[in-house]
Amino acid sequence: MPPSTVLDAAATAAALPYPALADAIASLLHDDGVTVPPRLVQPLPGGGSLFVMPANDAAVAITKLITFVPDNPAHGRPAIQGDIVVFDVRTGTRRALLDGPTVTARRTAAVTLLAARHLARHREGPLLIVGAGVQGRAHLEALATGLGVRAVRIASRTAASADALVAHARALGLHAQRVDDANAALAACPLVVSCTSAQAVALHARPRADAFVAAVGAFTPRMVEWAPDVCQHLAATGTLVVDTRDADHEAGDLLQAGLDVAALPTLADVVRNTPAWQRARRPDGPVFFKSCGWAGWDLAAARCVLAGLAG
């Protein structure tokens, strides 16, 4: 492999097939040599944020450097922009430069895929996706290719966005339809992904008792997708899981519901089947998986890309 490989968005996506990326994330969660310091979130004038997210294992070090500007899509610009730089730990040599938004979309959806592999009772769907942006498309593809979902319902603030994702789903061979009331659609869907802009509560109704819900839109304490009373109901009747301990101070949905996030099991607990997971799991009731993001997922993506380049 050349000393440094620069991958554009298309090449980055091709190097990160969802099932392989989910496997890489699971492998990372078993690796005690992974180090992920707290990410730096620098507020920017105008409401945007700059994220600096380093991570390393025994062989690879990465830094993710991205901006998040929530109102960019309304102006025809991506909400997330930036890059991920991958280094060799021993030599300090740059090994690769990856497209940051592509990695963010795909690793977030792959984390949901991994969680659903372990926690979802009804893998076939129907799947309800609330939010038809980049994350909605990534989750559609990830759960179709990695979980076997064949039916999907799409809800969005704009009918045009929902219709575009429905068309994409049908092109993938899925049975897909637009729904105009996401809350009403919850009753028919045992798989749910919420990936809205999380600037206000979008979901007020309760998921089914057998549902697996992945809430990915809110990744700061102020952001929210699910109503506090729904989160409290889920805590009382089901099982709550967070992606990492960073969610303790980032999981806006749960924090605004007044829940003790630090007491919840993480995805690593689930994958490792730890005592913390055994104590927390309930055989019945809905499962609510709160995903906030973590540089470890980007490290897993870098490991996946490097393995593919080397192979």
TrEMBL record:
Signal peptide: none annotated. The keyword Oxidoreductase applies. GO terms for molecular function: oxidoreductase activity. GO terms for cellular component: cytoplasm. Its EC number is 1.5.1.49. Keywords: Oxidoreductase. InterPro entries: NAD(P)-bd_dom_sf (IPR036291), ODC_Mu_crystall (IPR003462), ODC_N (IPR023401). The keyword Membrane does not apply. Gene3D superfamilies: NAD(P)-binding Rossmann-like Domain, ornithine cyclodeaminase, domain 1. Coiled coil: none annotated. This is Delta(1)-pyrroline-2-carboxylate reductase 1.
